[in-house]
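Supplementary Methods, section 5.1.

A reviewer requested that the exact input to the structure prediction be made available. We therefore reproduce it here, unchanged from the version used in the analyses.
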Amino acid sequence: MKLSTSEILRYQRHLSLPGFGEAAQLKLKAARVLIVGAGGLGCPALQYLTAAGVGALGIIDDDRVNRSNLQRQILYTDADVGKLKADAAAERLIAMNPDITCVPHPTRLTTSNALKIISDYDVVLDCSDNFPTRYLINDACVLSGKPLIYGALYTFQGQVSVFNYQGGPTYRCLFREPPNPKDTPNCSEIGVLGVLSGIIGVIQAIEVIKVLTDIGSPLTGKLLLFDALEMKQTCIPFKRVPEAADVTELNAYTYTCSVDADISSDDISPQLLNDQLKLNKDLQVIDVRESWERALCKIDSVHIPLKQIIEQAVDPLAIGLHPKRPTCVYCKGGVRSRQALEVLKATYGFSDIKNLHGGILAWGKHINTNIQPY
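The structure derived from this sequence is encoded token-by-token as follows.
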């Protein structure tokens, strides 16, 4: 294998880089890298790996481009809304660098296809946004013997690590089991600083290049924490835990933050709430979302943002709410309203109160289909 004249011109800054040169560039050209998730993390990682000359990039994502993605998923434009991300990303990346190959996998990674797909690649990037996929990727990489470059985002913070590299720790050594879904904000409700996606995704791309070319010290056994507000980064060391790292088979988790998650005793379904609103004129409904969300869509209700409820900055009686009357609280997906329910019961004395299961997204899915998901 050798570099073409076009590649020499394109990668000349790499070729003149001390300790890198043609040998490392040829390793990149020969490499096959799988990116799971072509979203906030996947977009910048894909762009820089494309520019760096990684020979083949696999893109697995079954999602379509949504307008709310464009704040951070910089591979896409407004014209891409509605397109499959894997296909749109592959098209854009080939236009950036015709010397590489892009393989779109417009599907969801599952226990039935993970090993087959991952076996075709040298390194895997976890750019996903949910816990079941993260554990599935880790377990499949362990069984396949593939290094895993992990990245995650939370509001203004991000983290990166390298797992399953040269006998080092795995994801399960750091996070043995998924958290309780009730303790975790809905995937799309917590928000994220758009440019933070770029920083963490690019760090993931750096780690891929280090692993593929054997330069520097990859983040194996180290969790890099980045705080964008304070502009601080911290490295936390951790060790391999054999009983956690060992994987013998792939298992599917039922963990979910979707509108169809299991209903609890404190929840009320959209269908039942709709029936009760027709029959019970005393039923109170409280919207605990932010004002900008309410401007997009709403159910007839009283608006009290969750923060005001938690900080006890509201007098229910003053705004016409009575703690003894039947009440329903709702948010976007059902997580914030569950928090509000607990506070309203414990602090404000609401005794007959329910949480709208799945939030207004479920209401839009089952009752008012004119409500546009956001």
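The chain has a mean pLDDT of 93. These observations are discussed further in the main text.
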